[in-house]
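Model it.
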Amino acid sequence: GVSKLEDPYLACGNNGVPHANSYYAPIVAGNIVTANYFLNTKSEEAERPWTFGHPYGAMLAYMSACPEEGCESVDLNAPIWSKVWEAGLIGGTWANGYWR
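Modeled.
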């Protein structure tokens, strides 16, 4: 697991490298942004699709600015991130609990 802020695995993409086909979303301050997570995995304990990408721990979504030409050259390990969403387990087990 990731235990240090300097860990290159902190940024999603396993090794902290942006995807070759990253998407640049042209937004400005005040725009509403929606993030959807879909992954074709299945939580065996929950017996239902899991759409966040991993079935354990808190769920967090971060965003950062990219230059107009795209995000491929951005250093994902730099302190550029802003948290835009989070959910944590309030009660129960992770598979069937109440997340908020």
